[in-house]
Amino acid sequence: MSDIIVQKFGGTSVGSVERIDAVAEIIKKTSRDNKVIVVVSAMSGETNRLIDLAKHFSKSPDKREFDALISTGETVSSALLTIALQSKGIQARSYSASQISMKTTSSFSKAKILDVDENKIKDVLDEGIIPIITGFQGITESGDITTLGRGGSDTTAVAIASKINAKRCDIYTDVDGIFTADPKVVPNAKKLDSITMEEMLELASQGAKVMQTRAVEFANKYRVSVKVLSSFNESSGTLISLEEKSMENALVSGIAYQKDQIKYTLHGIGDIPGTAFKILGPISDADIDVDVIVQNVSVDGKTDFTFTVPIDEKPIVDAIIEDIKKDVSFKDVMVDSNIGKVSLVGVGMRSQSGVASKAFKALSENDVNIQIICTSEIKLTMVIDKSLVDKAVQVLHKEFNLEE
Amino acid sequence: MSDIIVQKFGGTSVGSVERIDAVAEIIKKTSRDNKVIVVVSAMSGETNRLIDLAKHFSKSPDKREFDALISTGETVSSALLTIALQSKGIQARSYSASQISMKTTSSFSKAKILDVDENKIKDVLDEGIIPIITGFQGITESGDITTLGRGGSDTTAVAIASKINAKRCDIYTDVDGIFTADPKVVPNAKKLDSITMEEMLELASQGAKVMQTRAVEFANKYRVSVKVLSSFNESSGTLISLEEKSMENALVSGIAYQKDQIKYTLHGIGDIPGTAFKILGPISDADIDVDVIVQNVSVDGKTDFTFTVPIDEKPIVDAIIEDIKKDVSFKDVMVDSNIGKVSLVGVGMRSQSGVASKAFKALSENDVNIQIICTSEIKLTMVIDKSLVDKAVQVLHKEFNLEE
């Protein structure tokens, strides 16, 4: 392991000149004993300001132009943070995606990182200069600007940490770490000192909102050690450990929820091989994350197929379903945006039975009706009415004694 | 000559979403009968907003970072204008300096254009797409972002027009064209339908403020036909003609003034060869434009050397003068920021005598004392007290019957 630490600062961490100044102090301190690479998001509010400008002209602006537009937010914050560091006597230099060849797919607004020129970054480090790199941005092979989707700066940081073989990737945000549940919903939720990568993966995709799922996947795949911590205080954060057993084998380590999904159910589908692919293939081609996928056993050769997607993808998914009608026969489509998801996550769950029934019982006693159940080895997800999500999180947090 | 028109829109022309929309209409109209290349400045106010952010951290921020920061303004406006055009059914695509290889010197904040990849632009035009190019920006050989200095977008436009052999370069601004004098100072100043490149060059450098001097020089050197016009109305603008005799041989075609200069006088300099270079060389190396340069005949081997520079370069010029003391002996330095310049410009002046004495007489009768006089073939510049500049412009405008 090298002595390099990658530090990523999110939008709220650099949301004002005062915050940028505070972040510069954190970097200055870390750089005393480590080589530091910094990845930075746009100042909070800036991306939305740019989106609002674009929306004046078009409800769905061309994605190439949209990405060129919103990527400027990161360019601004990287230059400002560099100037702030230099004013404190620290050698630093800003780099855009183009300048470090952060190559991505050409899937605008949702681009995936293909490669990054780590030698350029190493050269800068070797000069004793801290590179301040724009998160979120990429460039295609032909030089078009792309963006990685909301929260993409996390992925930028992990990708760089992986390529450069960094000791750790520190994700600075405005929360103290990962909690057993959202403290806004469960006031006595507990901060976890460490969590396994697998648990984090399930938590993040279920809406823990601290770190982008793709970044966690990246970290998991390339074995990058990640720490989530706050730039607003000196809290110790949560280490996302590469070892599996960090959670002292707790049965359930946390509860996640999500409210921004929409549920599609195709009724009366012919239960023939390849149907699921015919439906989900085009959705996946459109780079839309499908979350819960449920298909019941068929009755008389017909079945129901249910899946959830982010609610803002509705126009695209509607169009895709209209289009696949020619290939897939089904009776009708039911669309429900009034849903929410609650998940129990924990590596301990895989070896313990009874977690599911305990959860169902607790929810039922509190009048929370469960529409869909979906399980993985370390996760139990339940789709319920959106208005009941907060209550369900509180009930489950208590039921599994997570406040202790 | 090709059928390509380069249209450049300045900051006020794209200063709001409504203005961007109006500019898109101008482009749409022009594109019916011409191939169009667009060069765009940052939305007015945006560059200053970014400068203010940087100044929070440092009074003199590192110029590489400063350029990376402020160049984002043009990236934003080019993407927005592209989205606006697309929403009107016009095919357009935004390009940054990096994307069209707008190569410059590495003199940050004052970079000079070295070359541009016109083939990339031609390919886009051949696809039937209007390229919307960021003005003001460049990149160095090693990929650092540069800017061309205030008003540099004009230079970008002319450079592209030259390389692509465009029919004309239209500089859209918030004034109707070139006037015989600043209409704010002389209300009955007259708009000129055409003006020679030479006259424009003298007018621009003397503060007509419509178009950047360097851009006019560029246009002159590479024989690019330029038109200055307003994006706010359908005025016919002023054509800056390549022919010399457009002005019907008017004696004086216009009056220019400038108030943002500072005057240095080195007293008691040894009148030996190379002295002027020893003084002006380092100033020129610092990319500072020296305007009026006057040296009187020497008395007893000693002389006075006077020159003017933009007032905001004072700290740098002061340091340079301190530094050259070791090479050049002089008695003392007099610095005067309370000066202004007034110039008569006209190709007719070269063949007509009496212009100067007529001007001196008129000013003297109106109690305007002339400190320095400096002449070229088509220009007569007088340095006077700053508070008398407006009056002098009015007096001269009347004296030479320019309102007629």
Provide the CATH superfamily of the domain at 4-174 in chain A: Acetylglutamate kinase-like
Structural category of chain A? alpha/beta
Number of helices of chain A: 12
Rounded Rg of chain A = 22 Å
- Mean pLDDT of chain A, rounded to whole units? 88
Regarding quaternary structure, how should these chains be classified? Answer: homodimer
Largest sheet of chain A: 8 strands, mixed
Percentage of residues in helical conformation of chain A:
25-40%
- Biggest contact: A-B, 36 and 35 residues
How many strands of chain A? Answer: 20
Poorly predicted runs of chain A are none
Shape of chain A: globular
Could you tell me the strand content of chain A as a percent range? 25-35%
| CATH-defined architecture of the domain at 4-174 in chain A | 3-Layer(aba) Sandwich
- State the name of the first-level CATH class of the domain at 4-174 in chain A: Alpha Beta
Kindly identify the CATH topology of the domain at 4-174 in chain A: Carbamate kinase
Widest sheet, order of strands of chain A = 3-6-2-1-9-11-12-10
| Amino- and carboxy-terminal Cα gap of chain A | 35 Å
